Amino acid sequence: MVKGQIGGTIYGRYVPLIYTLFIFILIGNLIGMIPYNFAIATSIVFIISISLSL
Q1: Domain assignment present for 17
Q2: How far apart are CA 1 and CA 3, in angstroms?
Q3: Residue 10: exposed, middle, or buried by beta-carbon count in 10 A (0-12, 13-18, 19+)?
Q4: Is the model's pTM score more than 0.85?
Q5: What pLDDT does 18 receive?
Q6: What is the pLDDT of residue 1?
Q7: Residue at 37 is within a domain
Q8: For position 16, what pLDDT does the model report?
Q9: For residues 26 and 10, what is the distance between their CA atoms, to the nearest angstrom?
Q10: Are 39 and 28 in contact (CB under 8 A)?
Q11: Cβ neighbours of residue 17 under 8 Å, at least 6 residues apart?
Q12: CA–CA distance, 11 with 3 (Å, rounded to integer)
């Protein structure tokens, strides 16, 4: 999927970054499904920090 979107031979540099972000956000949202826990992706601070770090 990444190779089709980025193309060329440079896609290999971005695969670990994309997968790491995906897993991090997925686990953060799954933890939020446990009763009385906070979903990290609902915080504006989390969203801004992820967007600025990229």
Answers
A1: no
A2: 6
A3: exposed
A4: no
A5: 83
A6: 64
A7: yes
A8: 86
A9: 25
A10: yes
A11: none
A12: 6
User: Residue 32's domain spans which residues?
Assistant: 24-54
In a domain, 6, yes or no: no
What is d(CA 28, CA 43) in angstroms, rounded to the nearest whole number?
11
With tokens 């799954």, the residue in question is 30
Closest CA to 29 of 20, 21, 38: 38
Contacts of 3 (CB under 8 A, 6+ apart): 11
Q: Which residue has the tokens 């190779």?
A: 3
Task: In whole angstroms, give the CA distance from residue 21 to residue 40.
Answer: 13
Query: For the chain, how many structural domains are there in total?
Result: 1
Predicted confidence (pLDDT) per residue in 1-54, tens digit: 666 777 777 777 878 888 898 998 898 888 888 888 887 877 888 888 888 887
